[in-house]
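$ run holo --ligand "adenosine monophosphate" --emit tokens
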Amino acid sequence: MDQDCIFCKIAQGSIPSSTIYEDDMFRVILDLSPAAAGHALVLPKKHFRNIFDIDEATASRLFVVAAKVARAMKASLNCDGMNIVQNNEEIAGQTVFHFHLHIIPRYKDDGQVIAWKPGSAKPEELQSIAAKIKVAMNE
Ligand code: AMP
Ligand code: ZN
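-- output --
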């Protein structure tokens, strides 16, 4: 636990939150500034800054919890779709530096935009990038 981290305090239960799910590894809460009704955050109880330092046990359980929450939201909120978003570092929009996964139910005409501008790449550029990443995957 990081003493200065608000999500550590929320995840441990020392700051109250609108909790929708809790187990030994995670607390899932409603976001205070929801993009849409039901917008939730999956918080690991252990402190990780983001995806670059999350441990394997937490990472591998994360989507089991996310899928459980997603199905419960679909059944209870009657949403039409869902975005899963996870921001890492300031350049990518991270504002709270304790790992969290956003689960954002989507409704027809909700007016939200969660998007990027599609770019373009030549096949040789894709191959060169893929080769670099593959080397690092084996390090
Ligand atoms: P991110 O920009 O990915 O780091 O997301 C941080 C999210 O945390 C934002 O959607 C905030 O609305 C949300 N947030 C910040 N503080 C709290 C809090 N105390 N309780 C619930 N959600 C929070
Ligand atoms: Zn923390």
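-- notes --
Residues 6, 17, 29, 31-33, 41, 87, 93-96 surround adenosine monophosphate (ligand 1) (CB under 6 Å).
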